[in-house]
Amino acid sequence: MDCIFCKIAAGEIPSNKVYEDDKCLAFYDLNPAAKVHVLIIPKEHIASAAEVSKENSALVGHIFSVIPEIAKKLELGGGFRVVTNCGAHAGQSVGHLHFHILGGEQLRMEMC
C-alpha cells in the first residue's frame, strides 16, 4: 500500500512523535493550523471515518482514550479541539483515518 501514514506508522518515514503504543501513533503536523497541532493515527489502515465499523470501532475508542493523555502531556489544560475530515469535500488530504489535536492558543470558531 502506498499510504504515507502507514509508512510513518511503520517507521519508514520519520516523524516528530508525541505518543506511540501498539495501536496508534501521534506526531506533530508538518503544516500546523494552531500553536499545537498533532495528528493521531491508527497503525491499522482505515481510509476515513466512513470506514469505521463494529469490527474496528474499538481501535477508534482506544485513540479517544489516549487523547486526554496526549493533551495533558502537551499542556493543553486550557482546552483543545479534536477534528477529523472525511472525504475530499471535507478537506481530507491523506486517505488514512487521522484526528487533529489542536490547541495551545485561543482557537477560532471558523476552524470548527
Helix/sheet category: alpha+beta
Order of helices and strands: HEEEHEE
Question: Within the CATH hierarchy, at the fold level, what is the topology?
Answer: HIT family, subunit A
Q: So, the CATH homologous superfamily?
A: HIT-like
Low-confidence stretches: none
Mean pLDDT: 95
Count of helical regions: 2
How many distinct folded domains? Answer: 1
% residues in beta strands = 15-25%
Total count of strands: 5
User: Can you give the helix content as a percent range?
Assistant: 10-25%
For the report, how would you describe the main beta sheet?
A: 5 strands, antiparallel
State the shape.
globular
Largest sheet, spatial ordering of strands = 1-2-3-5-4
Q: Give the end-to-end Cα distance, rounded to a whole number of Å.
A: 31 Å
How would you characterize this protein structure?
The protein has a 5-stranded antiparallel beta sheet with strand order 1-2-3-5-4, with helices on one face. Strand 1 and strand 2 form a beta hairpin. The protein has one domain: HIT family, subunit A (2-Layer Sandwich). The radius of gyration is 13 Å and the shape is globular. The termini are far apart. The longest helix has 17 residues, at 57-73. It has helices at residues 4-9, 57-73, and strands at 17-20, 24-28, 36-42, 80-83, 99-103. The protein contains 2 helices and 5 strands. With 112 residues, it is an alpha+beta fold.
